[in-house]
Amino acid sequence: MSANLTINLKRASKVYNEGEIIAGIVVVESSGDLRHEGLTLVMEGFVNLQLSTKNVGIFEAFSNSIKPINLITTSMELVPPGKIPSGITEIPFEVPLRARQAVSPGYPGLLETYHGVFVNVMYILKCNMKRSFLNKPLNASCQFFVQYKQQEPAPLKPVRCEITPSTIRASGSASGSGRTVMPQFQIYAEIDTTVCPLDKPLTGKIRVDECSVPIKSIELQLVRVETCGCAEGYSRDATEIQNIQIGDGDVCRGRDVPLYMVLPRLFTCPTTTTVNFKIEFELNIAVIFEDDYLVTENFPILLLRSR
Amino acid sequence: MMPVYYQWSSLKKQNCNKQDYPRFEVSSHPLKSNVAIVNDNATARKSLMDSLSKWSSAFEEVDPLLRFEQMNMEDDLSHIEVIDKVSNYSKTWNLKRSAILSKYTTGEKLTIISSFLPGGEKISSFSALIRQVSNLNEKVKHRLEQLDDFDEGSVRKTMGLSQQEFVVKINMLNDEIKKAWDSEQRVKAFKIGIQCSKLLSDVTVMQFYPSKFVLITDILDTFGNLVFDRLKLKSYGTAGVNNIQDIDPAQVPESAKETCQNWLFKMASIRELLPRLYMEMSLLKCYLFISKEEIKPAVARLTKMIRGIGNPLVAAYLRVYLCNVASKILGQDSEDIYYNNLKEFLDDYQQIFHQMMRKKYEAQLLTMDKYLNLYVPAVDWLMYCTLNDSSKCKQTLLEELLAQCEQIENNELLLCCVVSAFDSSNIIKKSSCILEMVENDVDRMVLINEVLSSLGEHLCTADNYRHQSAETLIQTFWKIASSMQSALHFLQVLEPWLQFACTHLSTQHVNIILRGTIRYMVKCGRPADDFSGNFQFVLKRMLKSIPDVEELFLMDAFMPLVELVQTSNARTMMAKTVLSMFFSRYDSNCIEDHIIISSLMRLCTILHDSINAVTVEDESKLYADLINKFIQAVSYQDDFEQQLNFYVESRSAFIKLDAVLVTLVHAVNALSLRGAGGAGGAGAASGGWLQRACAAYCFVTVPSLHCAITKLHLYLLSGQVALLNNCIGQAEANFKALIGLIPDIPDYILEDGQKKPTHTKVAGILSDFLSTMLILPDNLDSNCKAYILSGLIKTIERIHWKKTEPLYYSTLLRILDLLCEMTQEKYAYHLDSVLSNDVLYGSETEFVEIIENYATNICQELLVVLKMLGDVKETKKQYNLALELFWRVIRRGDLLQGPMLSLAANLWMLSQKLQDSNNKLAKTMLLALQNDSKPASRRLLQKLEESSKAS
């Protein structure tokens, strides 16, 4: 006799806002009558923090103190102990998604689902069927995603910049300091807004007005900056989320090339600051010359869940 | 047993007996059904001939490849007209894509990079681009980031592929996508799509790029369709929707939308620009499931994003793909897309001439014009579709684009595409402006040949161009063309312009152009033979378009131009082209102009002289055909001497072609008769020299032929003509020659590669000959009576024909007929001018005796044949022969003579013995005998009845 347990959510996207009701069914598939000691459903949400390896040495003392932060836990009994007939049995359920009312200090409320490198925000539905002494309990789990409600759109905050050899030196962000002769170039870039709604693509334009050497590639890099820690110390790490090319080869001079990036789901979330961690985002525009010499310009951006 | 010897005596008829041949009633006319069959054959043969000549037309080209090129050009021209106003771009594109595939080919080695193909060598580091940000945790490698980083080890580079191998691999990838999709490996299919579009960033073998584009976009379409079809299935089940416009996002279930979104997110995270753009385009129609409103902005965005592609060639084709994909979705709404992309292309136009690109194509040993030609299909297509858009005024657009041409540097590519894409009427209006533009920039411009030849083609379609400006146009054209570097280009350009000149300018002008052409070709430093194929095209166009084809030969530069090529092969081709075009257009009956005649003579001589041992039979047939047309067309009207001289000259010029000699003999015979009768007193006045000369001509010409039957026929014909002209000596000579030829006639001759029996033909000729012999008077100088006939009889005796052969005994029967007729006092027919033997001998006894002696011998021989037929059991033949002979005896023989009577009786009995008398033929014969009131016939009848009773 074999039995199988699955959770199916009604909503195909599995995306829910706070206050909504998560509806779905638990499907029990069994080739014979199934005795059990009760079927329970648990909803859990938590933040996993991890210190980056390069910081471990320094913060060893408190590294253990970083424990998952619980965001929500709800548990309910779906079916009291009894017997489930053979075949497919569908058990509907509804769980309200609501943040805890009694707030402990530092409790951030329901955060958006986010998959990062050092910070992960996850929500899981777990279904558990306890069975008699000799039988293993049956388990099933299902991730779902939490998103904030859409806020009113924030006012646009466009930024413009010019990238020239002099701006590179001034900001000191040029990585190729060993380079003796800087090529002559004048690049103009514009980002339509640094306050970006997550559902909209990131847009802007870049124009190469002048460049004495051929360009190999122009790229747009989305970077997450994750900060974990507490008063004693913290780690701050910037990692790439995605890097997409917007110019391939020596593009035409004096032409506006659109910047366009769709923000990836799950790997981005609204910019978040809590007591224990921060999730921030930055955008890099990188111009790579034929000899792999790289010029970048960095823009901190604010991600929002808004229309 | 029959008596061995019967003395033949012919019946001397007083008046013509009407019932010379046995007659019987038949239900239908024996020729009637035959006529129908002949008709059938005629049509069948005609269509067969048509198709044959269509096939053989291939022989008329020097270079089949050039011919293909020509065909392509014709196709291009024709299909542009056909699909005018048709908004179904994809159909037209299909035509275009096959043209691209056949045009852009390469012999270079190609490279393919893929992880889904067997073979090839591993590439260690596939993505060489730098990840700038540090501390990337190696452990955490996300699916997202892996998307376009294939399993490093699996990516293989296959180099040194030939074009065919490349195509095979591409097709394998196409199959691989479908296989992966069907086996639920959808991400794998997606990855193959990405890899394929990456191949389009490789421009190492540029001249193959347009074809590569076509091949790879096919794969992308496959992928796009797979995704689209699955979404359709998820949304509408197996019922589906008929029209993609019917897809309503409101009806699409959430799960399908979610799937669609997932594909789009996946696509949006492709790291490299080119594959991302290609993949988005291939998935563009999936937006239909989410929101229709998003499509147009997406297309507009993609249009702009293509600016990021630095390589102008890659970008141009990317635009073509975008437009094609978008127009398929948007249909009528897509009008602006082409125009916008064309504008974008023009904004980036100078990238084409970027130093980097120059370095690249020069490294691949491409010339500037070849390089620019790679863009032509893409720009042409954008331009064509923009024009197809009804909302834009073509004239304004043309003016706009021409203004742009004037402003920008390196305008040739744009100009070339503008000229070829726009319709003739608009281009013609602007022709002088365009020409001026070319003239101003002539030193630098490449693709001049393309611009000029399409401009020329446009002008050729003009019906009535104002004369004055046509002249100035051509002058300007000539200035440009004569300074062109490449003779090949020069000839290409000349082709349409010469047609324009021919139709719009006077002969003098055309002649000046031809002279200039000769001068150019002489100066260009390369032998004209290198361009003989193009030369032929030029000549063809001219021959086709000149209003009066005869005028060509009146230009003093035409023949030198034709003979500019030096090698015999090229000359032959040239002559063949000119002649066949000339005769296909030439519509009057005769050519009288001496200059034309001598020019054509020269061309025919070139054709003839090219024939050698290795010439294909079909080829020489074609030549003979052309030369025959020439000979038949030449006429000197009443100047017979000149006409004959022409034939004499032709004979010596075309001696290698039997077919031509035959035509000449016929022509001379016709001339001979024309001289005698047609011209009234002229023939008489000439004192018969013409007739004698003609007869002599024929007599001398015929022996050089190869085919015995033809010779036989021509001897007979020439003899008859001589006889008609009262040239007895010449006629006799011909007939003697004919008789002398009889022993040499083979039983079979080769005709069209098949062995065919000769005896029907020989029988026909011989019986014609025998009829002629009746009126042929004896040569009184020789003392032999019926001199020629006796010669024939002797010859027949001598040659040992097989006696049971029908040809043999039916000839004997006919000789018997002739002999009987010859004994008459007045022959059945005469020639007006000729005194036949009846008048000559006045039925003198000696002559009649000799003739009857022959008849006796012949009769004797026939009896021998009868016996032999019996011996070899050829009963039917024997029966027929017996009846035939019987008939001759009772009709032509004098039954009052005993031997004739008993011969008749014996023959009848023999026939009765072989078959009963119910045979129709036998019955009618008997009936004729019964109706005859002559006492001799009565006696015979009586005798026949007696003998039948006795038996």
TrEMBL record, chain A:
Matching entries from InterPro entries are given as: Arrestin-like_C (IPR014752), Vps26-related (IPR028934)
Protein family per UniProt: Belongs to the VPS26 family.
Q: Which Pfam families match?
A: Vps26 (PF03643)
Source superkingdom: Eukaryota
Under which name does UniProt file this protein? Vacuolar protein sorting-associated protein 26C
Q: What biological-process GO terms show up in the record?
A: intracellular protein transport
Please tell me the species this chain comes from: Galleria mellonella (Greater wax moth)
Task: Give the record's keywords alphabetically.
Answer: Endosome
Q: How does it assemble?
A: Component of the commander complex that is essential for endosomal recycling of transmembrane cargos; the commander complex is composed of the CCC subcomplex and the retriever subcomplex. Component of the heterotrimeric retriever complex consisting of VPS26C, VPS29 and VPS35L; within the complex interacts with VPS35L. Interacts with SNX17 (via C-terminus); the interaction is direct and associates SNX17 with the retriever complex. Interacts with SNX31; the interaction is direct.
Q: Which gene encodes it?
A: LOC113512094
Automatic annotation (TrEMBL), chain B:
Q: Where in the cell is it found?
A: Endosome
- Alphabetic keyword roster: Endosome, Protein transport, Transport
Please state which protein family the record places this protein in. Belongs to the VPS35L family.
What is this protein's record name?
A: VPS35 endosomal protein-sorting factor-like isoform X1
Q: What species is given as this protein's source?
A: Galleria mellonella
Gene field = LOC113522486
